[in-house]
Amino acid sequence: MEQWMDLSGKVIIVTGGSQGIGEHVTEALCKNGADVVVADLMENEKFAKNKKVHFIKCNVAEKVSVDAMVEEVMEKYGKIDGLLNNAGVSRPRLLVDFYGKRPEYELSEEDFDFMTNVNQKGVFLCSQAAARHMIQAKTGVIVNMSSEAGMQGSKGQSCYSGTKGAVMSYTMSWAKELGPFNIRVVGVAPSINERTPMNDDAAFEALAYTRGQDPQNISSDYEKVIPMGRPGKLDEVADLICYLLSDRASYISGTTINISGAKSTR
């Protein structure tokens, strides 16, 4: 019986695919038949024996590293059907530490460059390198990982929010540029999800400080503003991304889909 969402024969690059959302996306893509290239700084051992997964060490913020990764993909597979720009970083920081107690949680130039290099420059470099080959093939899909914070802003996460807002603009602009070559560009904007390395205890402590909250209560406070009453599951985000990378989403381009359980600023 034919699968409804069959990705067999498709070659898809997942940046940051070794952990967090990327790990779940990699697993879901494999289950749907895709060959997945995990482009990350470290390899996930659980994928080491999976013949559907090929790991390439890559720093998305360095052009030489990105270009080498894409060339290796082309040498091994001869094509790129999809790219998920998932690699991302966050450091909760205030513009000004008006509490006057934790100056390390005030946004520094190093913090700014770190987040911008990975979240914005990395998306640009990977998309450009992959799109060169997609244009020649006249087919392909680029999915950019944005965030609800990029849509609405987020207290204590101004720089992170700014990078994700930029990703939304890239998505709309590149969809217009690449559409004539039958290349779709779509964004995904998750909200509060299950714990990942990006929102570990240290991140919760920093975010709680920027918001004047108790770190022990910040998670439950989040859930109170989600109408569906719970944080999102990483597999739910992965399922959406698999759909967008599939031919079932063949007319979806130039938009960013919010997956948030109806969470908003109220």
From TrEMBL:
<dbReference type="GO" id="GO:0008206">
    <property type="term" value="P:bile acid metabolic process"/>
</dbReference>
<protein>
    <submittedName>
        <fullName>SDR family oxidoreductase</fullName>
    </submittedName>
</protein>
<comment type="similarity">
    <text>Belongs to the short-chain dehydrogenases/reductases (SDR) family.</text>
</comment>
<dbReference type="InterPro" id="IPR020904">
    <property type="entry name" value="Sc_DH/Rdtase_CS"/>
</dbReference>
<dbReference type="Pfam" id="PF00106">
    <property type="entry name" value="adh_short"/>
</dbReference>
<dbReference type="GO" id="GO:0016616">
    <property type="term" value="F:oxidoreductase activity, acting on the CH-OH group of donors, NAD or NADP as acceptor"/>
</dbReference>
<dbReference type="InterPro" id="IPR002347">
    <property type="entry name" value="SDR_fam"/>
</dbReference>
<dbReference type="InterPro" id="IPR036291">
    <property type="entry name" value="NAD(P)-bd_dom_sf"/>
</dbReference>
<keyword id="KW-0560">Oxidoreductase</keyword>
